[in-house]
Recover the amino acids of this structure.
């Protein structure tokens, strides 16, 4: 698509401001009523989904030049999708998230990118990761000493796709290592792609770098097809979103599971049994790309039409991604099954959860804003009385770990698999 394709949508936004908040019936307090990090942090309408519609119209009409401020407004979108699901509570003919990403793509096409974005994309082209400074030949170092198959060389039932953050963040290596050990002990025939694994491309897509994202997708799909992979499991919500929502558009047909889905299955069928008590009160953070953006892709081809030249509709009916069918129950069921563990919920949960702050590369391009967003979530977690915040995404974990080590705040941060291991 092109920005011009969004003109009609831009013009029919009613400026209701739903995109700035979680839905009214979900609000439990004024303190935690906000939904969009960008408008909350910058407190200026242009940083909301509604404001970005206005930015697009101004660009389309030639009324605004490309400036550093405009670039900041556009790139500050976390691509978390909060605006999208809140908008769809009362509207069915707007796609705020798709528009936000198209607006980013428009800047990319016109060469208006941030220096740190360029470094990330250069790293993606050279080393297969959007984490500048990391080197491909060390991508599999996290697995040193593990007896795990190379799925591209040996027949494997399940491919564990580790992702960039877990591959290169040494302080998080215990998580993918634990995943391999737990699944192997449960009898799962698991393998990895070693140093042939390439970035999933999700974050490139979130930042508007469509060609680079598609390149990553095609490269991974081709390798899976060559190796005969039938099932891919990942512990990264960004990877999950890419495989579940973006890759099918390019022909991917493999089964895609997040680790929490597979662990939940194994617990419920009795394969994984717990023998230890974990006496702890925890709260669960829904990663944006596992929760509201974890809905599966639904193929659609059709056209927009109007009823009596007024009511917008589509023929045939267009899929409506409103976040309701993301992955919410599996992680909670896993936590509830652990003996001694008590789960308490934050105010903003499921499709209306607050972002961790790492979305769309903002942890790299705008670290102060990213850290502020994470601290907001940590503060919300603290109000529950929980000893720890638990999630299922390395980007969330890293941002929360960084945010919880200052100002006397020592809330613990866990991946679900950490607690599963403790209970086995």
């Amino acid at each position: 698509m092109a920005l011009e394709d969004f003109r009609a949508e831009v013009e029919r936004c009613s400026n209701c401001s739903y995109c700035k908040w979680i839905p009214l019936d979900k609000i439990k307090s004024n303190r935690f009523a906000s939904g969009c990090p960008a408008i909350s942090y910058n407190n200026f309408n242009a940083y909301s989904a509604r404001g970005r519609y206005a930015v697009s119209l101004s660009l389309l009409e030639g009324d605004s030049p490309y400036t550093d401020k405009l670039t900041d407004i556009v790139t500050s979108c976390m691509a978390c999708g909060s605006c999208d699901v809140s908008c769809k509570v009362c509207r069915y003919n707007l796609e705020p998230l798709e528009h936000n990403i198209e607006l980013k793509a428009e800047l990319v096409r016109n060469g208006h990118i941030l220096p740190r974005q360029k470094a990330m994309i250069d790293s993606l082209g050279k080393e297969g990761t959007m984490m500048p400074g990391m080197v491909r030949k060390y991508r599999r170092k996290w697995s040193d000493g593990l007896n795990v198959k190379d799925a591209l060389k040996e027949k494997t039932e399940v491919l564990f796709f580790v992702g960039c953050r877990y591959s290169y963040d040494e302080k998080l290596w215990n998580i993918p290592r634990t995943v391999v050990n737990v699944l192997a002990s449960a009898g799962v025939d698991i393998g990895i792609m070693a140093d042939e694994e390439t970035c999933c491309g999700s974050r490139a897509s979130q930042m508007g770098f469509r060609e680079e994202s598609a390149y990553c997708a095609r490269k991974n799909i081709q390798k899976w097809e060559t190796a005969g992979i039938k099932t891919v499991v990942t512990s990264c919500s960004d990877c999950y979103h890419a495989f579940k929502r973006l890759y099918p558009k390019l022909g991917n047909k493999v089964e895609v599971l997040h680790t929490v889905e597979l662990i939940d299955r194994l617990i419920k069928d009795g394969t994984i049994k717990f023998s230890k008590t974990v006496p702890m009160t925890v709260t669960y953070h829904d990663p944006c790309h596992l929760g509201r953006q974890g809905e599966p892709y639904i193929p659609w081809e059709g056209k927009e039409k109007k009823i009596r030249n007024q009511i917008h509709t589509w023929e045939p009916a267009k899929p409506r991604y409103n976040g309701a069918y993301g992955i919410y129950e599996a992680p909670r069921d896993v936590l509830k099954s652990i003996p001694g563990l008590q789960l308490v919920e934050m105010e903003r949960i499921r499709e209306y959860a607050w972002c961790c702050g790492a979305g769309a590369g903002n942890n790299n391009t705008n670290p102060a804003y990213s850290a502020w967003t994470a601290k907001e979530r940590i503060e919300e977690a603290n109000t529950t009385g929980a000893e720890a915040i638990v999630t299922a995404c390395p980007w969330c974990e890293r941002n929360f770990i960084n945010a919880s080590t200052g100002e006397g705040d020592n809330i613990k941060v866990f991946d679900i698999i950490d607690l599963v291991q403790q209970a086995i």
Summary: The chain has 18 helices and eleven strands. The chain has a mean pLDDT of 96.
